[in-house]
Write a structure and sequence with these properties.
This protein is α/β, with parallel strands linked by helices. It contains 14 helices and nine strands. The chain has a nine-stranded mixed β-sheet with strand order 5-4-6-3-2-7-8-1-9, sandwiched between helices. Helix 6 (about 205-220) runs parallel beside helix 13. The chain is globular.
Length: about 425
Amino acid sequence: MKAAQVKRTYSKIPVWIVEDHHEVVQHIYRAIGSRHIPMKEVKMVHLDSHPDLLIPVSMSAQTVFDKEALFSELSIENWIMPMVYAGHVSYVAWLHPYWAQQIREGEHEMCVGRDTSTNTIRVSSTDDYFLSDALYVPAEQLQDGKPFHLSVIRVDPAQASERNQDKDEQNTAKKSKPDPQPGCSRSCAGMLQPADGSSSTSEMPSVAKSTTSAMNSLLCVLKQDESYILDIDLDFFSCKNPFKEMYTQEEYSILQELYSFERPRVDADEEMLCECVERRTRQLEDLEVTFAELLEDDGELTVERLADKPGMKSLVKLVCSLKSRNKSPDYEMVHQAGLTCDYSELPHHVSSDAEIQQLMLAVRFVLQPLPKPTLVTMSRSSLDEYCPPDQVDSIQSSVLNILEDLFGSLEVHKDYEEASGENTLQSS
């Protein structure tokens, strides 16, 4: 019986590279099944221009216990939280570039559980990210709740002139790495200091402050002998909002108007928050029905009838514009684009080669003092163009070089090349 509980180790760190981000879940589950990663309370360091912390809105909570059904329900924006509800993941550090601002900076504690009224997975967080998708419910309304800790950490590009300072601070990091304790916060002992040993001052470059803060936060949580997942979306380094190229500025502005999210007051109580979620739920359901009807019939009479509904007046202009460019618009895709237009736009920042290299340096600086990850998962996100296709191969190569330099030999599995027979097999 004891043998079944022994944690196994990989001879080389496996790196699973997929195209669409939710495809990493099968590899995480495989590592759990092979006992390389614990069944419960796994920690994840998640580098991405997107949080990926939404939840399949209508999915039954019970689905998380049916692996194949779960895989069929997941998408690129909602693959993490079902693992939290299943008990596998308890902590995520979302490391994001400066252009990604979907969740407020800092520490977030929440409960992820089953909503007793709908049997769907919901959260107790009141951040706009969750409210705008109508995912909030009061904690007392959640059953089988799992505590979830989210750290939102900004990583700024590092200047090439800071390379020497980077090396010095990496050595400092090794020497001053703390012994993390449960409940450790950013104020815990043994924090990283500037390379000269002085305390942080306004003279320090802002990027050094940013990346040092990121390392301090992570070192408080990740213990030296503890399993964790390092997850990297290559759009962390350069990111597009593909919908901006699919629709005109006028069409995009109309979508922002139709799908706009009415924030609750800053001092909103629980009743106000629940009313906000109810309004948002009705709004999104009405929009989904509207575009489903347009799929069946987008004739003038239908469009005018739908536009008579409250808040839908601009629908006529939107449909006319869409049909002027395409006689049969993909209204399902239009709805998906609209769902990204709530309290903020999707991140859109195509980085120059120089900025990509500055971000690579910053990521190296952040990862260097961390323990070796048990498993690395990586998403290219290029076919849907969240990561620019003309940059993705170069970014991928650079990231792999950094990982090999920091953590030693890797066993790289290019799962996106499976169809061409170039995928390597995972070894125990």
